[in-house]
Design brief:
Number of strands: 13
Largest sheet: 5 strands, antiparallel
Strand content: 15-25%
Radius of gyration: 20 Å
Shape: globular
Order of helices and strands: EHEHEHEHHEHEEHEEEEHEEHH
């Protein structure tokens, strides 16, 4: 079986290349020839892309248009373009999870603005403040590793963040106090929870991301947490993902974010579970059934 591992042309840090190598090594053990292709090596044109020869594409990028073009050529793309898009834009993630009855923090999206104008005047936020109060969380619709996420404690801080983000899309979210500085990363492959870890901050940061200095330890999620993680993946159409779950009152699971391209090296270091062969095995099984 032949596959292509499509990655971003411009992201070359060790933390990403390590993931690519792990996926390629796992493929060898499953008798899969997995060839790495940087996005810039592919001519972004349907007639050119149709010349590729492969049984599937493992798409480890967020170039939605390229993923859509590959699907238009008839290739099986994992995860799908729509699934990646809906995870990469937190507004769409929120919409789809709400539609499927999956608990998230109470969330309000900002109205659309443009580069010349930004979010001034910010009077639209008055109703949001009435519903959420302070502190609240502001997130840019696109961002990874806990970046572009802000905790604001009053209107002055809110307006400062609105000025900082300019015209980028944002949302306003309820601050889940019970989960301040801690969450669970639940890794799912093929409707099955394969590993989980507790992430926690020791420096007072309300975020728990490892990239921001958070710590981690293995965690055994309960049935409710597992069910919510799998349900979120099904709702978003994901074959594999990392689901970030907050602790609500009485430990009610609340989905914070869903990652279509989870950086699973930290999970491996913490839990000993390597997602790469599990992802490739799932893809191989799906392709063989088609």
């Amino acid at each position: 079986m032949k596959g292509l591992l499509v990655v971003n042309q411009f992201v070359n840090s060790d933390k990403f290349t390590e993931i690519y190598q792990m996926l390629q090594n796992a493929a060898k053990g499953l008798d899969i020839q997995l060839t790495l292709k940087k996005s810039g090596e592919l001519l972004h044109n349907i007639s050119c892309l149709k010349q590729l020869s492969c049984d599937f594409i493992l798409f480890w990028d967020k170039d939605i248009l390229l993923a859509k073009m590959l699907e238009a050529c008839g290739y099986s793309v994992f995860n799908s373009a729509d699934a990646i898009f809906h995870c990469d834009n937190k507004g769409y993630t929120e919409l789809i999870l709400q539609q499927n009855g999956i608990r998230t923090p109470l969330t309000f999206l900002a109205p659309l603005t443009y580069e010349r104008y930004g979010y001034s005047p910010s009077s639209f936020a008055d109703g949001i403040i009435d519903r959420l109060g302070f502190p609240m969380v502001i997130k840019e619709l696109r961002g990874s590793f806990g970046q572009q996420v802000y905790l604001v404690r009053d209107r002055a801080e809110m307006d400062a963040i609105l000025a900082k983000v300019g015209y980028k899309g944002i949302l306003f979210q309820q601050f889940i106090e019970e989960s301040a500085g801690k969450d669970i990363r639940v890794n799912v492959v093929g409707d099955r929870v394969v590993s989980a870890m507790l992430r926690y901050s020791v420096n007072g940061d309300f975020r728990s991301n490892i990239t921001n200095g958070g710590h981690m330890k293995p965690f055994e999620p309960n049935d409710r947490q597992k069910s919510v993680a799998v349900s979120a993946c099904r709702a978003l159409g994901l074959n594999f993902a990392g689901v970030d779950i907050l602790f609500g009152k009485d430990d009610e699971p609340i989905v914070c974010e869903v990652n279509s391209n989870p950086h699973f090296k930290s999970s491996l270091d913490c839990t000993g579970v390597d997602m790469s062969p599990l992802i490739l095995s799932h893809i191989k099984e799906r392709v063989q059934k088609r």
